[in-house]
């Protein structure tokens, strides 16, 4: 079980506890933390968040990402993480 610390994403700051078997986007939705998204396949970039600490695994994606950016639809936590809105 991993902890996702949500740091001021659309006004929400809270702790989620997840198994790490679903995307961060899906986990956020399950906990009513709503973020922008569209394709859910790593193409549009609308779900980009900032990884503030911890590690994630990214499935394949075509989007170029800056340092610390993750695609919520393609990323799964591999340990406790802290995420916030894109800089
Ligand atoms: S929803 Fe399109 S890249 Fe994540």
From TrEMBL:
Give the superkingdom in one word: Bacteria
> Which residues does the UniProt record annotate as the domain 2Fe-2S ferredoxin-type?
1-87
Q: What SUPFAM superfamilies does its record include?
A: 2Fe-2S ferredoxin-like
Cross-referenced InterPro entries, in alphabetical order? 2Fe-2S_ferredoxin-like_sf, 2Fe-2S_ferredoxin-type, 2Fe2S_fd_BS, Beta-grasp_dom_sf
Q: In the record, what terms sit under GO molecular function?
A: 2 iron, 2 sulfur cluster binding
Q: What's this protein's name?
A: 2Fe-2S iron-sulfur cluster binding domain-containing protein
Q: Which organism is it from?
A: Candidatus Ruthia endofausta
